[in-house]
Amino acid sequence: MTSYDVLSEVYEWLIADAKLDPAEFAAAFDDVLSLLPPNPRVLDCSCGTGQLAVGLAARGIEVVATDASEGMVRRTAALSEKHGTTVRTVRASWEELRHHGESEAFDMVFCVGNSLHHAVGAQGRAAALESMALLLCRGGRLVLTSRTWERVRARGSRLEVRERLVRRHGRDAVVIYRWEIAPRWEDEHRIEIAIAQLDAAGAVSVRSELLSCWPYRYDELEDDRGVQLPRALDLVTAACGRRRSGTAAGWSGRRGCRGRGSG
Fold it and tell me: Which residues contact 142 (CB under 8 A, 6 or more apart)?
């Protein structure tokens, strides 16, 4: 079962240097953030350790941050407190979002950080996307980023050991990925991620977690949008998102927003 509760305690060793700072992480999405109306409300539904949510809140945006991992939600709340921002945190899977947000309507929903592939198969992915879309205001946008799975699958099953030590909090670690690539796209794939930390005396401690994932092609998101979700605007963020991290998509929602017209 994919939980990230083990990795949540060492997740900063997996985050690129440029994304550790909340302000820098949020700035990576300036292109889509420029589409927000005044006084926006934003949901980060795969918040991880909170860099994006806190970066958005620091801009004065009303932010709700959710994650299926209790550990990730706890760390997001701690990061928000450290930076003096206000972020409402909720532990919720994508399928549970609608139960936590019946009165909510968001101008933008983020699902970033290579998260969507953890949804179980095409049916699970469509259900997750539908849950996100149902929380959007009319005209709101859903923003996704993803790996380019064609490249990942082309390399096959393998062990990857990062070539450089990663230093966080004065401690070095080696980051290791073990990929289990299934023969067929629709089959379950697995990624085992290990963080091998070195202390000052040279002792090694390892934290690892085996994560399940179900890859998809970019075109399949188009199919999901047309069949499972309300048909809406073009994928206006696709070009910039694919340059940045593989895939980004924009859907518009159907719900009215509090305090704003729903036309």
Answer: 108, 109, 111, 129, 132, 133, 136, 249, 250, 251, 253
